[in-house]
Design brief:
The complex is a heterodimer of chains A (about 160) and B (about 500). Chain A has about 160 residues and is mainly alpha-helical. Chain A has helices at about 5-30, 40-65, 80-100, 105-120, 125-145. The chains are: A mainly alpha (about 160), B mainly alpha (about 500).
Amino acid sequence: MKNTEKAADFWIAVAVMAVSIFLYSNASKMPKSARGIGPGDYPRIICAVLIVLCTIQIIRTLIECKGLPLIDFKNTNVRYLVRAFAMILLSWLYYTFLKKVGFLVLTPVFLFASFMLFGYRKWIRGAIYSVAFSTAVYFLFVKVFLVLLPKGILG
Amino acid sequence: MIQNLIAGFANVFRPFTFLMMSFGTLVGVVIGALPGLSGSTGIILMLPLIYKLDSDVALVMLCGLFCGSMYGGSISAILLNTPGTPSATATLLDGYPMNKKGNAGRALGISAVSSFIGGLISAICLALLAPQLAKVALSFTSPDFFALSIFGLSIMASTDKNVVKGLIAGFAGLLISTVGVDGVAGLDRFTFGNYKLMRGFQLLPVLIGVFALSEVFLIVQKGGEREGAQRDQYVGRVFPKSDDLKALLGSAVIGGLIGVFIGIIPGTGGAISCFLAYQVAKKLSKHPDDFGSGIPEGIAAPEASNNGTTGGALIPMLCLGVPGDTVTSVMLGALTLIGVKPGPQLFVNPDGVKIVYAILAGMIVIQFVMLIVGLAMAKVSPFVLRVPQTVLMPIIAVLCVVGAYSNSNNLFDVLIAIIFGIVGFFMKKFHYPGAPLVLGIVLGPIAEENLNRALIVSKNDWTTFLTHPISCTFLVISIIIIIYSIIKNIHDSRKEQAL
């Protein structure tokens, strides 16, 4: 196992543990039930198990790391991660502007940008695919599945 | 049972049901053939469509997709030396060498016929075993169902290389299922004033995020394009000659039976069974040294075996609500989405009987459809594989967004899908399994309801889970499985360090 993954395991376990502790304390404030379980009891049990599991994972990674740094930027291939984050950012922008701009206008733009991000370099074909696919999906979902996709500026 | 099965066949042969079943099988073959897309992704992309269908039609279509994707995985294994799905990994050992000898069509034909034999064996076993297991499960009480949920979760988590990671994913899923208005007291849990969270995290956007969108994020990171593809090749004659049929029959039957057995064990699946079947066929063969050089038996055993797991995996899912593998855990989610609650009650209530026997009959018919579709698709498969991943993945991203949105015509579900896409991306990147997370979300409310009911009946006596023999057995087996997996993990990691 690479050190990057061990470091990630450590920090993921720390994060999950922190969330579990926070939710455990939140659930503790919920009302109790005289018989059966109250609304907070079930999440508290789950949080407690998660805290134990995360503790095991933290101890395990610390033993396996044996003094290696737990923040390992050297071995992290940032170039590859940038592409993934760019796609995530693109998806988020698509979600943010979908209602305002509308599906039929925004989807070809999103698709074309994604093609380029993935490394597709046939510009004209990419533009044709983007428009054709967006139109096909729009009519399939609106006319056949009766899903009201956002019309945006065309509405 | 026979009468119900006949009614099931009548249902399956209704023109619309048959059409949708064939459509599902075709989509499954195409999706399975495309590396990077699995049966679970295919089912997720089809979920917006199943809302518009009757439950029985929708489920038969999903079963077709499940079986089709199992066969489809072999197409790219044979033509590209890249398995379309993990279940087809063993197929390339002999499939690709046979292709390299100029017999691509022969290899694809052997794969289609073997998948048919394995699938048919599994469908017959499903029709025979599922109603019997359901009869046993009808005697289960609340403590048993609670323990069964824990059993399902622990067995799914323990199949991972690191059992602790699997358990963290599973329990995180249980915790996610608690968000929203609590079913018992009607109190808001973990909504933090956001009214959109009052209905909790909807399963469809979560599934889309964890399994489909995360795959897009992961593939863009790798650069998109596949390597080593030979997409313009000549396929040739597809239907196997009589010599090949004779050669493959024994291995296919053995592979099919192994597949059914492995499929029934929750948390396993085609990826494990294909290698097991390959090894068994090799040991039983009169010419074991020829394995790996491109012989029919080397394709038949793994292909029959991975299709054998389909019916096997459906047995625990339908009878107990515990999925057999990742695809059936997604199918379990799909069932929940259309309001079908899997479990023994499904085999006794009239609506459930209609659905269940449509599935049992459908699984048999699907194998014949898959054989025809598979043989036909083998001819055109090089064209399908010409679709570049750089075009396919952005299209899938759009389908994910539209699919999430169509859940309730709500953009908030798109946001949830993106968030869980990011979660799924990191889970895949750092080897946290997605199946236990989804299973936790699906089983969470069932576990809570039965835990509450069991404690009310027993007057808050927690020993009730140990005094009921069935629940006690499930809990003991769960603990044994987890301890065994932890010991195995430690052993494996020491071995890894020593190397």
